[in-house]
Amino acid sequence: MTYFEQHAFNPDRFRRNGHRLVDLLASFLEGSVDRKPAEVLRQIDPEKMLDLWEGAFQDAPTADLFSLIERVLAQSNNLQHPRYIGHQCCTPLPTAALVDLVGTLLNNGSAVYEMGPVNVAMERRLVSWMAGLIGYDTRSDGVFTNGGTVGNLTALLVARGQAVDYDIWKTGYDRTQPLGVLVSQQCHYSVTRAIGVMGLGEAAVYSVPVDDAYQMTQKGLSSTYERVLRDGRQPFAVVGNGCATATGRYDDLNRLADFAEHHQLWFHVDGAHGASALLSPRYRHLLAGVHRADSIVWDAHKMLMIPALATAVIFKNGAHSFEAFSQRASYLFSGEPQEEWYNYAHRTMECTKSMMGLKLYVPLKVYGVGLFQRFIEHTFDLTEQFADMIAAASDFELAVRPQSNIICFRYTPVGAVDLNGLQRRIRQALLRRGRFYIVQTKLNQELYLRCTIINPNTQVVDLTELLKEIRHLGTQGPTPAPADQTYL
Ligand SMILES: *Cc1c(COP(=O)(O)O)cnc(C)c1O
Asked: Is the pTM of this model over 0.90?
């Protein structure tokens, strides 16, 4: 037996540790689903957390796997807990975590076909399936990438390349012919960041005003378009939300498609969170017109219960999928890129990628699409119910009716003076108690509490309890942290 086999690559030890680890995680899951741990998170100050994780790495082993993992579980945010109603980070399917284990052990980085043949084929099948749901025909094509942020950048790079009549990859951006992009006032920051990364400058970002429904208006689109022209810039793209991160509201995609067609703009839909609604016959109308988009980004790690990260960026005209990055690395690629659909590195920001396709493909096959449809409908329906509860309560106020599983509201008891301060204090107190995890967002300069109902085990009772807890904390002074401050 080699040194390495004896110490680190020992199959017997892997088997024993694996069984024990799965037992540990299964107990964690069991307790979480039953709401056994009172806390969803342990709020620990960053400096304190740093102290808890010693920074010296010795030559010899200093820790035991299981004591470390138990500490990790105790100090991490528990997304398996039904009272995690915070960010758009999904409760991953336990099976997807197992599949991810396979992908990590295999570690077939999928830059080119040779490196990860199975995953490359799976990603191709997934892109076609997703394109079909969007309503694209067989000319469409796309790739998987690490997150919606990189996905939005990829799509906008193509849009920019289409707009200029010179090889921008070769010569760089010609500042004498400045460009402009129309984005929603409610767009995700990754969209404006992409414009920054592309070197177009902040002045290239044109925010289109939204109405009470948080949709870009016809008037807003037209006047913003005029403004881009008046500034001597060439508008080249309009980016719509399907749906917006802060409010979960969908743009009117047909309106945007009409507008983009009329002005010959690239139409990109940021469907990172909301494109999964396409799986539901009851909710897919929210994305009516999406098939008219030139490109779309769709995260599987938001509303398809897949652990981070797995994002599809899909183009109506598949040829565009090869245009974002036109560098060549001769040691990787053999022939004409268009013929090499299976060498994804032509088309992605990344070189090595994890086996992203694997962890979506397998659960889709093992559970069937029905499970995912039910999940979308359960979370969207429950959010609707939560909105009814809030609307019926005289001491709460909705920011806007939710369209998806994201909802913004605030506590407005009679006589409250500083409403923004109140919401901030309530959320801080909630986090200190740790029994719920929710977030906050600013809309029209006002602070709102914000929930994403993304755990399939969240029930009405959790939401009733949340409102009770908010009332309780809203009428109290500062709350002390929970008594148990041992972090293992
Ligand atoms: C989450 C989100 C993103 C960013 O995607 P990541 O996968 O986190 O990089 C972009 N746009 C919208 C609308 C989102 O909700």
From this structure: yes
